[in-house]
Amino acid sequence: MERQDKELAFMLQYENIAWFEDGRVRILDRRCYPRKVSFVTCTHYAEVAKAVTDMVTQSAGPYTAAAMGMALAAYECRNESEARQRQFLREAADCITNARPTTAKRMAQICKTMTEAAEAAWGSGVDVAEAIKARAIEANNSRYHKIAKMATYLVGQIPNGGTVMTQCFAETIVGMMLKEAKQKGKTFRIFCPETRPYFQGARLTATVCYEMGFDVTVITDNMPAFVLKNENVNVFTSAADAICMDGHVINKVGTFQIAIAAKYMGIPYFVTGAPDLVHPTVKDVKIEMRDPDFVLQAMGVKTARDGVKGYYPAFDITPPELVSGVVTDQGIFCPYDLWRYAESGSTGEYEVVV
């Protein structure tokens, strides 16, 4: 099996996202990367869930962590009866799935896939933890392969020598977009809003772009409209934490306001990812509200006066009228017609083709 993370930046390599080995899950701490390369080590599946809750890993990182966390759970209960192992994995799946509310349905898909790997292992007598780890790697390979297809469609929308604005850290699609552009001999500038309060745009997206040899500039979160207008931005793009079948996009807070500015200036907004069948409409999406104190500081340095209140929604919702196209592994779809994607036969971004 050829790994799909080949030629991608350091933090997009499977081992550097989350990795199960020797009874532990090691997760790259994205809260301090790239200024510090540090890993959080988990010896219990609940610690993996806590790492996700605490933003040790972000963007698509939690999905790899969830899969490796299920392998760890299988390792923890390896000496128990098969009935107890099944119960233990159900408990682990429930804990990991609910680590963050907005993405719980995607996490449930991942945990279900890992549980299916365990079922197959019990039936054949192989090591359950290693079987789940192998399925986790297959899941990453499957998702990376689909995202590589998305990248071909997205790069086709970017003119050579043009300018792109991103939002937050779009994880795999950033790396695949740049890899695809290199293969086509295409280059472009990238502007990354910083994405407070964790600064994923400044620290993660910009690092990946720089490591892969592209011209990248970080801007503060109140600069996108100015940059869109004055730097001749051709495309605004983001990934999504959920793409509802009614065309609403849930992504890092700030996406909505950039989409508004882009629409006003006639700049297309392309969101990448497979539509989520588990979200028929936006009505069942719960927006996670995080600790408001985080907006009163910057990377641990207090910036606001004591007694001042903060407000911290982790995500916002961009309506379909602001979305130029949903870039999937099956092509670019109109946000009002996403059921055509479901009818295309694709298994979606987080279903594993084994």
Write up what this structure looks like.
This protein has 354 residues and is of the alpha/beta class. Helix content is 38%, strand content 16%. Strands 6-5-4-7-10-14-15 form a seven-stranded mixed sheet, with helices on both faces. Strands 1-2-3 form a three-stranded antiparallel sheet, covered by helices on one side. The chain has a three-stranded antiparallel sheet with strand order 8-9-13, covered by helices on one side. Helix 1 runs parallel beside helix 3, helix 2 (61-76) runs parallel beside helix 4 and helix 2 (61-76) runs antiparallel to helix 5 (128-155).
In the predicted model, the low-confidence regions spanning at least 5 consecutive residues are: none
What's the gyration radius in Å?
20 Å
| Helix content class | 25-40%
Number of alpha- plus pi-helical segments: 10
Q: Which sheet architecture does the biggest sheet show?
A: 7 strands, mixed
Average predicted confidence as pLDDT = 95
- For the secondary structure, the number of strands is 15
Give keywords:
16% strand, alpha/beta, three-stranded antiparallel beta sheet, 10 helices, 38% helix, seven-stranded mixed beta sheet, 354 residues
Produce a short descriptive summary.
The protein is of the alpha/beta class and 354 residues long. It has helices at residues 45-53, 61-76, 82-97, 104-124, 128-155, 172-183, 200-211, 224-230, 255-264, 339-342, and strands spanning 18-21, 24-28, 39-42, 162-165, 188-193, 216-219, 235-238, 242-243, 249-252, 269-272, 297-298, 301-302, 315-318, 325-328, 331-333.
